[in-house]
Amino acid sequence: MKLRIAILGTRGVPNYYGGFEHISEYVSEGLVKRGHSVTVYNSHNHPYKEDKWNGVEIRHCYDPEYLIGTAGQFVYDLNCLLDARKRKFDAILIMGYTSSSVWGKLYPPKSTIITNMDGLEWKRSKYSPKVQQFLKYAEKLAVKYSQFYISDSLVIKSYLGEKYNIDSKYIPYGADLFSEAEREQVDNGEALKEDYFLLMARMEPENNIEPILEGFNNSSSHRKFKVLGDTSNRFGKFITHKFKNDERIEFKGSIFDTGKVRALQNNSYLYFHGHSVGGTNPSLLEAMASEALIAAHNNPFNKSVLHTDAFYFSDAKEVRNIVETVQRKETEKTMVSNNLYKIKYQFNWEKIIDQYEQFIIECHNNSNYERII
Q: Residue 232, class by beta-carbon neighbours within 10 Å (0-12 exposed, 13-18 middle, 19+ buried)?
């Protein structure tokens, strides 16, 4: 069965922003290769201006976020939905619910609606209590107006089952194994010089960037600490100012060249993953696939992916201890090897795309169009 599928809820492809854009790249292109017609909705501000990308149709919709801030996301999602209503898609995959579920009554009535339920957005510390309250409401609306649901984490799947009594389909993110071609591009002499710790994250409090860098700042380590991420927002400026006197800490800005990021992860002495809210994080899987040794924030999301194959920390003191004591010996090599096994058999993209295809077809076949509208 070949379907007409649309992906909404992202800023668009190719990825210049984050997790949902990252997975939308792989899923949209993969579904096209399997014979489906796929349309991805892009912000009109997206750097990519063409109408097709790797066989995927691109619809550009007006997005006033650059003019009016967060409220613009709601306008953009509305514009995408109004356009999608005209196009008779068999299935619509909505990535997240933050600014789309308020328009639930406008979801195309003859399309199968599947929502990827994101990762407990209302828990994010960057949001005020009022915003957190709204996000809980938006989550409830997403459940109400969608027919089917995807969870990218078993923790999220369990939460949705307990909270709303819905059975969501667990489909995680994926990653590609570090290839021999990529390995050949790594200069061993350079790799020995690149004796550094690494962190890659959006500059937000819940990503634990401050305690990670504080722990390192208080350590006696002689190594550099490279930080990847856009530091132009308020928190980013705060972080760069706080640690400006530590010459070991290097803020490298955003890098969207996957090859460069993977090489940095592969060459790092230890990769820090501080994300504490959300589902299966793409940058974590990329680090696992790139054969990085990982230190992760101690929370159920990270533990459900890494299990015992990482060092865990909860505060700056524990970060400092890891920085000063971690060795690259047999135990650490086993951790890296075990994480590679997970990527190969659990989190590989071909398997993830197959799961998306099978679930979308199954949902379309079982759709009864009796949503509340």
A: exposed
